[in-house]
Amino acid sequence: MAQITCEDVVLGYEGRTVTKNINFSVNKGDYLCIVGENGSGKSTLIKALLRLIKPVSGKIEIDEMLVASGMGYLPQQTDIQKDFPATVREVVMSGCCAKLRRPFFGRSDKEAALTVMKRLGIDGVSKRSFRDLSGGQQQRVFLARALCAASDILLLDEPVTGLDPAVTEELYSILKKLNREDNMTIVMVSHDVKAALRFATHILHIGDTQLFFGTAAEYEVSEAGQRFINPGGDCRA
Ligand code: ADP
Fold first, then answer.
1. Mutate to test the pocket of ligand 1, among 13, 42, 156, 189 (most ligand atoms within 8 A of CB)
2. Which pLDDT does position 148 carry in this prediction?
3. pTM as predicted
4. How many CB atoms lie within 10 A of CB 164?
5. What distance in angstroms lies between residue 159's CA and the mean position of ligand 1's atoms?
6. Who lines ligand 1 at CB under 6 A?
7. From ligand 1's centre to the CA of 112, what distance in Å?
8. Which of the residues 8, 73, 132, 232 has the least number of beta carbons within 10 Å of its own beta carbon?
9. Does the structure show a pLDDT above 50 at 54?
10. For strand 202-206 and strand 210-215, is the pairing parallel, antiparallel, or unpaired?
11. Within 10 A of 6 (CB to CB), how many other CB atoms are there?
12. CA 235 / ligand 1 centre spacing (Å)
């Protein structure tokens, strides 16, 4: 069974439709990139998958196992989050709280947090203040937090915004490893379609309606893909 299935989903706010005809599914181990112009509803779709907002109509089905084990979420970064007054370890461990829905930590949570911090190479800075870290390290900390919250799926909203090219590559490489080696399902909103094509197994392209859903290879040769990848280029190229 698919981990996520969307059928004829319409999304919007206060009577205004943002996007419609959303039909796709995500299976264990998929790496889905959601692409589209600014304002097309990519973040809104992530919020709907997290059940933070309800679709206007249509059906979003999330596998019960996934609901029980939790979904790791890495939101778009804001300046307020970057100034968070806590240690790295505290930020990472707050992910365990989200998963267990309780306000204290057990020994297994501490061990889980340490394992994840080691996996992402931030165990050496665990006692440092989060706000003193570089943007790239902060993003690793948030990724570690999301991994503490879930072991099966990660939802990420433009995770490389504001990072320099080297740190961006590093983050993409971590995500690729998590997907290929740990079979972690990844659903990521991306404004960088060329990067999306390097890593994703599947692409969902949305505008005011769904423009494409299929494999990355299919997208690359599709009309929607050609137009988006090479704006102003020759579609027949
Ligand atoms: P994207 O992530 O593709 O850039 P968003 O999902 O953020 O697009 O936004 C889609 C549209 O919904 C935009 O027009 C945006 O202004 C609007 N929107 C986003 N959040 C809200 C909200 N909480 N209330 C009303 N409108 C919103």
1. 13
2. 87
3. 0.91
4. 12
5. 17
6. 13, 18, 36, 38-44
7. 35
8. 232
9. yes
10. antiparallel
11. 24
12. 30
Three-state DSSP string of the chain: CCCEEEEEEEEEECCEEEEEEEEEEECCCCEEEEECCCCCCHHHHHHHHCCCCCCCEEEEEECHHHHHHCCEEECCCCHHHHCCCCEHHHHHHHHHHHHHCCCCCCHHHHHHHHHHHHHCCCHHHCCCEHHHCCHHHHHHHHHHHHHHHCCCEEEEECCCCCCCHHHHHHHHHHHHHHHHHHCCEEEEECCCHHHHHHHCCEEEEECCEEEEEEEHHHHHHCHHHHHHHCCCCCCCC
CB 237 within 8 A of CB 62: no
pLDDT score at 74: 85
Q: Please write the tens of the pLDDT for every residue from 169-201.
A: 988 999 999 999 999 999 999 989 999 999 999
